[in-house]
Amino acid sequence: MENFKGKEVLITGGLGFIGSNLAMELVKLGAHVTIIDNMLPRQGSNLFNIKEIEDKVRVNISDIRNQLSMNHLVKGKDYVFHLAGQVNHVDSMRNPLQDLEINCVGTLVLLEALRQNNRNAKVIFAGTRGEYGSSVKLPVDEDHPTNPKGIYAVTNLTAEKMVLVYDDIFGIKGACLRITNTYGPRHQMLHDEYGVFNWFIRKALDNEEIPVFGDGRILRDFLYIDDLVTCMLMTATADEAFGKVFNVGTGVPVSFIDLAKKIVKIVGTGKVAYTKFTQERKEVEPGDYYADVTRIKKVVKWAPKVSLDEGIKHTIVFYRKYKKKYW
After folding, report:
1. 180 burial class (0-12, 13-18, 19+ CB within 10 angstroms)?
2. CB–CB of 273/201 below 8 Å?
3. Are strands 8-12 and 32-37 parallel, antiparallel or unpaired?
4. Chain-centre distance for alpha carbon 231
5. Which CA distances in Å does 197 have to 72, 165, 267, 312, 314?
6. Can you tell me whether residue 86 is helix, strand or coil?
7. CB atoms near residue 219 (< 10 Å)
8. Can you tell me the mean pLDDT for 37-43?
9. Alpha helices in the chain (DSSP H)
10. 176: part of which helix (H) or strand (E)?
11. pTM, two decimal places
């Protein structure tokens, strides 16, 4: 990871869950980190996320849709980690135009800024496993059909295609990651609309019922944040990764009911309860998913290391210490 020492790095959406954890690791590696974030309410941005490094990073409160901001911010950057996006599945159906603006127009503004001001930067795009939609085979590899069920997944897939086009046509190196459900410290805990894993932990810590939808047997692939950060950094420094799409996950399927029971056992409080799907959630629920990560293991040489039990324990320690900052 010596590649990042003294390098200029831009993180879009850097005050959020993934971006802040990434920023902390980059600072440790000696990078000069600039964060852009629009602090949109409920999206997970939190200045406390970078409290430990606030004097070591530059923060620009702006929007990736702002062409003037992006034209300025991309100049001189060696790496751009593009994490800014509307990440609420339900909100993407309630307000699809906002989703389109942030995820597609925002990505295009960033890419145009790079085309005009810095074609040498390397771009890592954070997409979603939701781009696949309902699985027709398991595990899901990168050649699996893409049939998004919600607008959020459609706009992520479109943004991914834009990154690949700019790589192909303009030579702006871009690698795209289709990321599975990720959990860990610094995830917002105000509501459950950006993934229920951390919400389950909150409910257990508050000694409340953990609401599991349906019969709880839907399978997911849960990835700890530290493994994702390592993956992003390794992808950014792997020349063969650019121009390609990669699944990022563990490849290990876990049902929601088993996850909830495990969290209750490790936390020591809370209990599991079944609940019906809301109509909004039912409409965008893709069913079982777990990733085939053969390609990224081969090309990037990355593999997840943190077990589910270990990741849950680390997450619990963080929120017990900083609970008042997150709910």
Report:
1. buried
2. no
3. parallel
4. 12
5. 37, 34, 13, 9, 14
6. coil
7. 16
8. 89
9. 17-28, 67-73, 89-94, 96-100, 106-117, 151-170, 197-205, 225-236, 256-267, 279-284, 294-299, 308-322
10. strand 174-179
11. 0.96
